[in-house]
Amino acid sequence: xxxxxxxxxxxxxxxxxxxxxxxxxxxxxxxxxxxxxxxxxxxxxxxxxxxxxxxxxxxxxxxxxxxxxxxxxxxxxxxxxxxxxxxxxxxxxxxxxxxxxxxxxxxxxxxxxxxxxxxxxxxxxxxxxxxxxxxxxxxxxxxxxxxxxxxxxxxxxxxxxxxxxxxxxxxxxxxxxxxxxxxxxxxxxxxxxxxxxxxxxxxxxxxxxxxxxxxxxxxxxxxxxxxxxxxxxxxxxxxxxxxxxxxxxxxxxxxxxxxxxxxxxxxxxxxxxxxxxxxxxxxxxxxxxxxxxxxxxxxxxxxxxxxxxxxxxxxxxxxxxxxxxxxxxxxxxxxxxxxxxxxxxxxxxxxxxxxxxxxxxxxxxxxxxxxxxxxxxxxxxxxxxxxxxxxxxxxxxxxxxxxxxxxxxxxxxxxxxxxxxxxxxxxxxxxxxxxxxxxxxxxx
Length: 444
Known about the structure:
Blueprint: H1 2-91, E1 107-112, H2 116-130, E2 139-144, H3 148-155, E3 161-165, H4 180-199, E4 204-209, E5 212-214, H5 218-231, E6 235-239, E7 256-259, E8 267-270, H6 271-277, H7 286-290, H8 293-296, E9 300-304, E10 309-311, H9 323-327, H10 349-362, E11 364-366, H11 371-376, E12 382-385, H12 389-399, E13 405-406, E14 409-410, E15 418-421, E16 427-431, H13 435-438
Parallel strand pairs: 1-2, 1-4, 2-3, 6-9, 11-12, 12-16
Antiparallel strand pairs: 4-8, 5-10, 6-8, 7-9, 13-14, 15-16
């Protein structure tokens, strides 16, 4: 019995060894499995990271593809617009503008906004006389804003080029109660003149508004006047307008004058003058701004006795101001003057003062009391001296001519002298307190 128990204990030793071996193998296997699991997890993480990187790259490429497609679409649209523009310009014959065999005298721009019916009337009047000289006077319509009727009307003409000024910046008036229209008009004028002088490279521009008709000799008049502009730098601009051009105050379609007062309403300026004005162009009331002495700097304006434009715009930004009294009765010239045969050298600065002084000197002097009655009883030209602004307004009111002043200058005046016809062909000269001295007239 004791022998069997001893044998059993000896058997336990190899069993224990085997057990220990098995445990060691199992541990080794578990460790190897754990290492492989860790490697697998690392590999999975790396694969996931690579997958995310690949997805990000694909997303970026897709975004780039979308951006490129959008850029391609925009370019195609731009190309289509450019093709349409080129076709339109070719259709309208604008190549004549750059034709070196015919240098334009001036571009003609009609400033428009939201009055399609007025624009139609103005374009019809201009084309009536512009068609035969179209290469000398390329025609443009510049629209401020997006009124669809005006745009459609302007684009319906093959004989002109359409420009559109879109300005979405808010308007801030400088004084309460002001109309923002005057601010928008000033912005439009600056944009349009910049376009014509700097983009289209014209040397001169004639500005019309969308409520004007022109006379038969309108273009010949401006062609003759352009030579004066080029020669005489004391002339700032040439106008087709006479503020006192009502039919009862005019007579001679050949008569031209120099004036210290900017007339506007159908006028021509040069690029050199615009180079000076453009950088300091006002926010509003551009025409009154041009009448300030600090801006015209002693330079003068050429104006006719008989207007070469007629303003029919009773309804507009000025709301018909003065229309019935001053604009409706305007006499527009209906005589075809041959301006090419006219000697206009008397309008040059070195000759005009003496020319005008001689006319004033020959006029019979009268006192202002009962001026109209006295003038009616005299056959020849007369001159009436006024003492000051109030005295001028009193005399002007008796005759019915403009009473208005701007910066010390009456409308139409040259060296303080306002001239108009009364019982034509008689001329009346309203002479300022210093006018005779400035004209060099002594003992008259």
